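The material for today's practical consists of a large collection of protein records. Backbone structure tokens are a discrete shorthand for how the chain folds in space. An example says more than a description, so a record of this kind follows:
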Amino acid sequence: MKAPDFWRDDAKASLMPALLTPVSWLYRVIDQMNRGFQTTKQVSIPVICVGNVVAGGAGKTPVAIAIAKFFLSRGLKPHFLSRGYGGRLRGPIRVVLDVHTYANVGDEPLLLAETAPVWVSRDRGKGAEAAEAAGADLLIMDDGFQNPGLQKDLSLLVIDGDYGIGNGRLLPAGPLREPIDNALARAQAVVQVGGAADSLAALGIKQDLPLFKTHLVPDPKAKVITADRVVAFAGIGRPEKFYDSLRRSGCELIESFSFADHHVYTADELMKMVEAATSQDAALVTTRKDYVRLSSEAKMMVAVFDIELNVEAPDAFQQFLLSIIPKAP
């Protein structure tokens, strides 16, 4: 779904949050009941959960990739575990890039698989067991913060420094999957993606946990977009973040097309955007996550703007990860 405007913290004039609050109460009751019926499975390898508290993107996947790259550099064999949102396979199944498509396993597992092995499983416990049996000595969950099906050794709460927690209300009156205080109580650290140094305090988020500030920056190893003028499209949690990144990189954003998260593009939609870019002498650009959902023909007409996570205090973050995961060398 596409996040409605009334989820934002500045949508003060909207009546929708108040009207939907009773539904939010019902959502909370059902969510608590579902969690109460689930059993928690434990595996013998460390489990790191990278999650968030809002519906939509906060930057979880870049954080998960950065963590995997760090442990790979330490000689470990991290595997990713994902629910595979948007894919039809229930798993457990290991993602094979040349075989699986987003229709099989979802888009995010395809991104993760470029860094380390990925297991897609609706049942997190079974997925963790499959990864352990395949030789993983560390498991990184992309999402699953609210799912009690697997015991976690470390839970990182990722928060978008610009968006924060929106209007602070529970779904569907707001973007929260659970009350922010509940989420902070289960986390061992907060990872802030973007925003100013005091963003979380300004947004009213009070926490006494370790806070690691990060930023999404253009990937220096990826193909550089040389065009000055670009037409951009994105079907992610908050497309505006992508557009801002393009502007900060020096691109002139001529026009943009926004879609719901995980949107599957039709041929007509792609041709409309290709024509818009061609008519304005601009390059058509999208995110890596959107790119994996395109057909082979469409990929030939679209450029990718790749990003990576920059941690302000990388040594402190790495030492924190090693102190929490005692089995890491």
